[in-house]
Every structure is written in structure tokens, then in C-alpha cells.
Amino acid sequence: MTTARSTRKAPTINKEIVELRDEIHRHEELYYVNDNPEISDSEYDALLARLQELEAKHPKLITPDSPTQRVGGRPAEGFPEVVHRRPMLSLENTYNIEELIAFDQRCQRLAEGRPRLTGTSQSRRAVAERFAHAFATGDGSALSTLLATDVGMWSDGGGKVSAARRPLTGRDEVLKFLVGLQRTAATAGLIRNASLAIEDVNSEPALVLRIAQRLESVFVLSIEDETISAIRVVRNPDKLAHIERQLETRT
After folding, report:
1. pLDDT digits (tens, 9 = 90+) for 146-159
2. pLDDT tens digit string along 70-94?
3. Every domain of the chain and the residues it spans
4. Residue pair 214/191 in contact by the 8 Å Cβ criterion
5. How many CB atoms are located within 10 Å of the residue 50 CB?
6. Residues 82/170, Cβ–Cβ less than 8 Å
7. Between 105 and 91, the higher pLDDT residue
8. The listed CATH number (1.20.1560.10, 1.10.287.610, 2.60.40.10, 1.10.8.10) that belongs to domain 4-69
9. Backbone phi, then psi, for 165, in 5-degree steps?
């Protein structure tokens, strides 16, 4: 028997879920496309956690376009679904030392089966050079041909500077982020003061981005079969300082 209270409660829950989805979608667009976040990572995680809680209690209210059913912002059309060659182990948040240790152990097990670098250093550098040109000019078509269908991208800000909240997976997600980042920089007038150089970082080609001569970011590229399979964006000031010292010793 349905009581008056339960009848009133259902629309209220559905309304909250819809409002949460809309708010999360808006913040994802602000963050990934406009590079203009309005809330902190912890506030965003709290919104997503609340939505996950409500959907877990009311699974019939889950919809395919819910932020809980995918990673990143609104996916672009025209790209097929793919099976990932490697699991993306960093898709979940870690809030205590036990979870962090478990994550490290999973990474160590995965690393044991990681394939060696494919191709020559010259061929990998050639791919990096094409990527740098396409990224600098915002050429989405050229970027798309260089990215593996299951490419992954994640950022490390060290909690000191802004970085992508969650890893991005798949060509469409990564492509949208890269093009959006370039357009935002162009609109802000940062392009004229920016420079890109290609260097080796940990035996892999990397794009070294400087703005007004200051080291801003390093995009480390994992390249397999002449396509980019992973992009690690280093923005952590401590790690950038370490990379800067390494680069200085080569000059």
C-alpha cells in the first residue's frame, strides 16, 4: 500500500537526481571545456558521491547520460566503443593510506606485464612532433589520427595547481579536452607567449610547455605502433622543478 508520505517522497528524490545531474554536467563543461571551474575537486566529488548514493538506492532512476555511467564530460559523437588493452587503475578516488597502498600494489603488478617501448626513438619523436604541431594549432582531425582509440590521459597537480579531476579514457574524451584546452589558451591570449619543445622524460618523448619562459606543463607521451596510447600531464610544481633541473643538465 502506498502512503501519502512515500508518494510525496518519490518526486522529491527524482527531482534531486535530475538537479544533481544538471549541476555536475555544468561543472564538467566548465572544467574540461572552458577551463574555468567554479568549485573545488572535493566539492565536485561530494556532488558525484551524493548522486551515486541516490542512484544506488533507486536504480530505476539511472539513465545512460548520468555522470555516474561514464568518465569525463559529454562524449563527442562518431567514435566507436573499444575494449581497453590495459585497465585504467586510477579511475577511483583514494582518501586513505590503505587505499593508496592497494593502488600502488595494483600498479606494480600491472607494470610487470607492461610491453617495452615499440618503434625507434626517432619514430616516437616524429609522432611527438606531429602531436605538438596539431595541439599547437588546434587541429582536431590531425590529433584524432595520432591518438589510439583507447588512449588514456591523466594529470598530476600535486594538490598545488589545477589539474584534471579524473583520468580521461578513449579518443573522444581526450580529443575534446585537448582541443578545448588549446581554444581556451588562444582565447586568453596565452598562445603568443607560449612555446613547445620536445624532450625525453623517463625515456619517453614529452612536450615541454612554457608560458613566458616559465615551465607550465609537461605532456609525457607513451607511444605504441606510432599512435599515442597514454598522456601523462605533469603540473606538480615539485616534479616540474625536478624535470627543469634535468633539462638544464642537457644544455
Report:
1. 999 989 888 887 77
2. 544 444 444 455 544 544 444 455 5
3. 4-69, 87-116, 119-250
4. no
5. 14
6. yes
7. 105
8. 1.10.287.610
9. -65, -40
